[in-house]
Amino acid sequence: MPKKERKRLQVVISEEQDALLTRTAYELSSPERLISKSEVVRLAIEKIARELGDGEHLDEYRLLLDHDEVADDQA
């Protein structure tokens, strides 16, 4: 069976965000299955998209995106 083609996305994240990704991947991992940081990002994307589709947490996500540490640098 051919491997699924995936698009690659490169983003710049802070050391704190990288630490959060690492910690989350570690917490989701089990002795039987290690979870990668990429899998955590994919899971987060799906979760956010589902919640937005259901009309949940829209204002909370907007507030988070307005926060300097999460928003992209506009400079």
Walk me through what this model shows.
With 75 residues, the chain is mainly alpha-helical. It has a domain at 15-66. The chain is built from 3 helices and no strands. The longest helix has 17 residues, at 37-53.
Rg over CA atoms, rounded to whole Å, is 15 Å
> How many strand elements?
0
In one word, what is the shape?
Answer: globular
Give the count of helical stretches: 3
Q: Are there runs of 5+ residues with pLDDT below 50, and where?
A: none
Helix content: 40-55%
Order of helices and strands: HHH
Q: Determine the strand fraction and express it as a percent band.
A: under 5%
Average residue-wise pLDDT: 87
What structural category do the secondary elements indicate?
mainly alpha
Terminal Cα span: 45 Å
Summarize the biggest pleated sheet. none
